[in-house]
Write a structure and sequence with these properties.
Blueprint (H helix, E strand, L loop, with lengths): L4 E4 L6 H10 L6 E5 L4 E9 L4 H10 L1 H5 L6 E9 L5 E10 H13 L4 E6 L10 H55 L9 H33 L5 E8 L3 E8 L2 H14 L4 E9 L7 E8 L1
Parallel strand pairs: 1-2, 2-6
Antiparallel strand pairs: 3-5, 4-5, 7-8, 8-10, 9-10
Amino acid sequence: MNPPLTIDFESIDKLPGLLQQLKFNNQKNPIYIILPTEHTMTHVFIVDANLTDLEIILFLKSHSEKFFGHPLNKLSLDYKTESASDTSKQRITAVAAHVSLIQTIQVYFDKEKIMLHSISIKHETTINLLPWREIQRKQHIQRRNKRFILYGLTMIVMLFFIKYFLINETKEINDTTHSIKQKNKNMIIPNAKNHIALLKKLQSVDSKKLAAVKKNKSSLALLSAIANNISDNITLNSLTLTKKEIKLTGVSNQLSDIHQYNAILQKNLPWKNSQLIEVHNDDQKLSLMHFTIEATS
């Protein structure tokens, strides 16, 4: 990667000529614009050390008029964090500039198709007044939404194949039963008294068929109750179904949705003993929570 090129900003009037010179020189280095102090405003304050990036940004936005004398829509904001003497606190250095100035600089660079990496101030090069935090947050939301869509499509395909399997099994049982009945009609037993055991065995086939159909219908009702009540914020990862137990595992970013889904299952499943037995955060993405629900007959 080419080393960055730092440019001290003087005025908007001189920017077009500077960009023309950079374009003439076929400049490929990352460009860092340094604003003079007269174009920026700085405010230092102390907050709790456990505040997240989003919470700090929201705090700055809600106090923009108090700190910088201008409403949020008139400013471009960024900040850096430092350790405070009190380990439970952190020192925030917030910097703001008029959004019209930042956008004008961006427009000039975009027009000349020159990549602008950062707009900062002297001695605070970690500050970047370009809207990089907002872009990063939108990209994170887009990636998360794509994952949820992928999980949802996977579950739809799984349920489709399960339903197809159950329907196919029921059809095969019906065909087998019909075939057996036809054979029974054509069967002649010379001495029925000597073949009571055989008759009872043939009669049991029909009862087994009815039991199998009933079991498949019950399984289909269970799966429908599970699938039809999944909210947008819940994705199921696995489903285990036995004669006496259903076990679901899934992921969600809302704890309330997990509890609500468990309550709906308790109400709608034929098996009323449904319990949320485990909830824990994802090891890599703390905003996601894995859960396990068990229902027994």
